[in-house]
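Example record

One chain of 271 residues, shown exactly as stored in the release files.
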Amino acid sequence: MTTRFINDDVKPESHSRLFWLISDSWVLAKRSIRHITRNLDQLFSVALFPIMFFLLFRYVFGGAIDTGSISYVNFLVAGIFVQMLAFGANYTTMNLAIDLQRGIVNRFKSLPISRSALLIGHVGADLVRNMMTGLIVIGVSFLVGFQPVAGVIDWILIFVLAALFSLAISWISAVMGLIVKSIEAAQWTGFIVIFPLTFVSSAFVPTETMPYALRLFAENQPLTHVIEAIRSWLVGTPVGDSGWLAFAWCIGIIIVTVPTASWLFKRQTLR
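Predicted structure tokens for this chain:
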């Protein structure tokens, strides 16, 4: 006797590939976000590092640094905020490496889901974590004397640029997560890229005080433009070209890194 398990009245949903990509990505993003809510020490560890830098530069080094017409604490907040976004993206590298090394990706390969959904899920979850951590950092900045003059439009611009920058740096981290060979390597690879970009920038000191070669690099790298744009909207200094250059850098990085990460992921999963 043959048992019929398939009900002819139930038909599979028919949607476009884009619909399933968005749907699968949302499911996997919720998986990563659930890890954040169940493991809050990950959230606070991302916030703790920039807060330590905040207190160090605010109360130890700040008195020796001349920032002209604005106070050092007002100068520092944008740098610490962008540094937090950059370091927070390193979790994309580590979480992706963990999924690859522990065989979770192989498990997903047996399921009818879009291949790029895992990448988008990790990057989307990091965006949520970075925005939550950013609120903690901004909250701490008020406790140590930060006095912004930003209006509603300025705060919207800051939020949009911060989200775009978080996505850009997370996609760079995704590429690194697909290149590294071990979880241990994933833990330090991101710092090799993030450290020089954050410290050779206008995050902690004005670039005018740097030697010529460092100043040339600092004034033309993407983090400086993102920092200068956010600082201008926060404290009312002239934004200059940094406003559109910050958006251009972020969009350009996303355009390059998304197909690169997708190609690397496809090559990894076809092995």
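Notes: The longest helix spans residues 152-179.
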